[in-house]
Amino acid sequence: MTTRQRRGQARCLIDLPLKIWDASRNLIDDKSVAHDVTTSGFGFETRTDISRLRHVIFELRLPDGGTASGSASLVWSRHEEWGTWAGAKISRLSRGEGRKIRKVIHGPGFDWVGLWDRALVAGALVVAGMLLQELLAASSRGLAFVPWLLLGVCAGAFAYLHLRD
Fold first, then answer.
1. What angle do CA 102, 103, 108 make, to 5 degrees?
2. Which of 87, 106, 125 is the last residue of a domain?
């Protein structure tokens, strides 16, 4: 992988406090510092020798006081007399945690892509519900369950739009 491929994503150019644990959830360092954070990885410095580790669980402290956490594979490390520099490739990061990191990288703003996604799904559900109601109204039977069917479509839309993260 070339430097250009590795550096292709926008990154957070401020240092963020970092806590790291090993795969067994044993605390490795709660005073590490992360650099060049992206949603795919970050560099960090720690005072602990991590040369034996291959995977870590991490928690980044964000500027707004919140945290973003996940797990990462250690790609490289360089031990020096004061501590260790390392690079981590994120292997598990939920959509919500990634959104928090992107918000730090891109600054305050509105998630227009997320809104567009929700609007398309809601519009498709409304159109499907209206078509189904027209089909059922046109037939001479089956009118008794139309309100329950529409209630189910609305409940499904609510669950998808609000509970999917």
1. 145
2. 106
